[in-house]
Write a structure and sequence with these properties.
Elements: E1 4-11, E2 17-24, E3 47-54, E4 59-66, E5 71-75, H1 82-91, E6 95-100, H2 112-118, E7 123-127, E8 136-138, E9 143-146, E10 149-155, E11 164-168, E12 173-177, E13 180-181, E14 184-185, H3 195-206, E15 214-217, E16 227-228, H4 229-235, H5 243-250, H6 261-269
Parallel strand pairs: 5-6, 6-7, 7-8, 12-15
Antiparallel strand pairs: 1-2, 3-4, 4-5, 9-10, 10-11, 11-12, 13-14, 15-16
Helix pairs in contact: 1-2
This protein binds the ligand N[C@@H](CCC(=O)N[C@@H](CSS)C(=O)NCC(=O)O)C(=O)O.
Residues 57, 106-107, 178, 184, 186-187, 219, 253, 255, 258-260 line the site of the ligand N[C@@H](CCC(=O)N[C@@H](CSS)C(=O)NCC(=O)O)C(=O)O.
Length: 280
């Protein structure tokens, strides 16, 4: 397999250029492919994974780490839980390299801004298409490295323009943000939402992953914690339908407006640096 490695220079919000090691890997997934419901891929011994929850916003945050180098990343941290996350990082002797967001959230303020203050050296990452400020910006296909591990960032727009799914191929896991929820999906009625785009994102970029890949969403409102590609391909009540039926479902969800949206979106545009607790 040809792996092309190159250094990319990215401009951050202040125009400063950061060197990030990006590994441009062709879309080849783990060689340990299986397709039955029970054949989960075992984590390698040097990979740490922790699912964390914020009850207020029903948000999952994920902590991943390379146990060799101790480098860690957080996916979708929540402002009110930043101290919890920072304490766990410290307790486990990990070094938080990056705090990543799958997209610009509308229902809670991201913890990335506060975490950058709590853990100097930590950098924030979000897709360039999100329109939010961060230290580093991702394009479709970019790879984020922590220790020897890699996260592949795949653009999955539809809930918002900047939505990404983060895939850790070797461990057989993917973080779908609000694009694909367990037996559901992100709403498409604000923030550039588009049901046809979301449908294509899921069918082309998530349902094409190996069926035993475990899926971890940004939210669950019913107590579910994870799913698999197989389960969502077969049992998702929205995305198993044809595209026109899907669009009709999405146009008639009639969900209430998220309570925090008017505060969260302006804050998240600044990587959560707006209205950070005074003790930060
Ligand atoms: N009640 C919550 C917001 C619930 C909600 O709208 N969730 C979003 C993801 S966060 S923007 C969503 O896409 N839901 C899809 C669904 O089918 O539930 C609040 O007020 O914060």
């Amino acid at each position: 397999m040809l792996i092309k490695i190159f250094r990319a220079s990215l401009a951050n919000a202040s125009g400063k250029h950061n060197n990030v090691l990006f590994v441009n890997i062709p879309r080849v997934h783990s060689v340990r492919r299986r397709s039955s419901m029970n054949s989960r891929i075992t984590f390698t011994e040097d990979f740490f994974f922790r699912q964390l929850f914020d009850h207020q916003s029903s948000t999952y945050t994920y902590m991943l780490a390379d146990l060799g180098s101790k480098e860690a990343v957080l996916i979708d941290p929540v402002l009110e839980q930043a101290k919890r996350d920072s304490h766990l990082i410290q307790e486990l002797g990990l070094h938080l390299k990056y705090a990543l967001n799958t997209h610009m959230h509308a229902d809670h303020i991201t913890g990335t801004g506060y975490l950058k203050k709590l853990i100097p050296g930590c950098e924030s990452i979000i897709s360039r298409a999100s329109g939010a400020q961060a230290d580093k910006y991702l394009e479709n296909g970019d790879v984020v490295k922590f220790g020897r591990h890699t996260i592949q960032a795949v653009a999955t727009p539809g809930h918002t323009n900047g939505c990404m799914t983060f895939i850790v191929n070797e461990q057989g896991i993917a973080f779908t943000g609000d694009t694909l929820l367990i037996r559901g999906c992100g709403r498409t009625d604000f923030q550039e939402g588009n049901p046809r785009t979301l449908y294509d994102s899921v069918h082309q970029n998530i349902f094409t992953l190996p069926e035993n890949f475990r899926l971890f969403p940004a939210h669950d409102y019913k107590g579910n914690m994870e799913s698999t590609v197989f389960e969502e391909k077969n049992y998702n009540p929205r995305l198993t339908k044809d595209i026109d039926t899907f669009v009709n479902i999405m146009e008639n969800l009639n969900l209430p407006y998220p309570k925090m949206i008017d505060k969260a979106v302006p804050a998240n545009k600044q990587c959560g640096l707006y209205d950070i607790p005074p003790d930060a």
